[in-house]
Amino acid sequence: MEKNELFIGLDIGTTKIVAMIGIVNEYNKLKIIGIGKSKSLGVHRGVVNNISQTIQSIQGAINEAENNSNEKVDKVIVGIAGQHIRSLQHSDYITRENSDQVIDDSDLEKLINQVYKLVMMPGEEIIHVLPQDFKIDGQSEIKQPIGMFGGRLEANFHVVVGQVSSIKNIARCVKSSGIDFDGITLEPIASADAVLSIEEKEAGVALVDIGGGTTDLAIFKDGIIRHTSVIPFGGNIITDDIKEGCSIIKKQAELLKIKFGSAWPGENKENEIVSIPGLRGRDPKEISLKNLSKIIHARVVEIIEQVYMEIKNYGHEEQKKKLIAGIVLTGGGSQLKHLKQLVEYVTGMDTRVGLPNEHLAGNNSIEISNPTFATAVGLVMNSMKNRKNLNMNQKTLTDSNKDNMENDEEINSEVNQNDKTKSIFEKFTDKIKTFLENAE
């Protein structure tokens, strides 16, 4: 990787848009050198509903990140979430023509392409195809089939599906902001990269990213992603409830939630009261902190129960699928007081709050040890990982070309092979890039 090569992530959320710029330092660790944040105006529950406002917000965040780092942003990896994202489990198999040859990339490619052809509901398209484990001629629980012999290659897949129009709208906003669109990543997967340790992913863990408009869930077991889900509730509906319940404006409700809010009503005494200035000459309002906690508690329990239902749907109650590392909370909503205790009380699972600085260089001059930035950090890490893979593929190709200069056919087959190793997700990204170019 080139010195000072930039890796840029763009987190388009319901309440805020974050642009983050990272570089690799001399110890090969990721260091964040610039961050820009702007209020998100055109996004509702993770879905763009106003193109021009979203473009303005993106430009605001990008400009701030550029000024912070004195670097120029050219292309970004974008996170997608939103209520239209769903996932399903699917098993598929291929019968190989020649079982005397070892299984290689082309066999996996054929199997994954088969999954890609699954018929979805109108307007939906497969975004991620993630192999879980493989089976060769009935032998199960194979993690890596390449290099093995066998006639029938079977696999279980975790398939993530999304609405094409919503994803194209996000890509359109990025492109119209004057930046190249480098790729997309599912936000729960990005957040998981930023805050989870390898041990937690092995033991079994549920990552719960509580954002403004949505709560994203990613479940890992044995180091493999097993389940993803986007729940269309987040911190904003808690604010709305406070607004309605206390008859105050949204701005005051948000401040109340951040400064005095607690998810555990027992913490506040009956006589604890906060006074809020009245509107335009009206008398100030007195609000009991106990009542405030009750309003927050009721809504938070509802969100936790939805999350727990998803965890149970995955099969957490089966001994083999038990999530030993419990739950990791992240995202802006995870900063609510006593949320950790409430999650443990409702689910009975160990819980911690995850900060996104665990995999970063220790000398980050920019303060990002805040769960709000989990997705943005994950996207920057994702950008770095993609570039690394690309560079490795190109290096393999160059080395191979040197060895085979005299044999054109050999080189061509190597190029094809290199193309085959592209992930389905990269192909999906290429598809969207092509669509955007045609739509110009």
Output the keywords.
globular; Nucleotidyltransferase, domain 5; 40% helix; alpha+beta; 5-stranded mixed beta sheet
Summarize it.
This protein has 440 residues and is of the alpha+beta class. The chain has a domain at 235-299: ATPase, nucleotide binding domain (Nucleotidyltransferase, domain 5, 2-Layer Sandwich), CATH 3.30.420.40. Helix content is 40%, strand content 27%.
Question: What would you say this structure looks like, in words?
Answer:
By secondary structure, this protein is of the alpha+beta class. It has a domain at 235-299: Nucleotidyltransferase, domain 5, CATH 3.30.420. Helix content is 40%, strand content 27%. Strand 13 and strand 14 (224-231) form a beta hairpin. Helix 3 (164-176) crosses helix 12, helix 4 (187-195) crosses helix 10 and helix 6 runs antiparallel to helix 8. It is globular, with a radius of gyration of 24 Å.
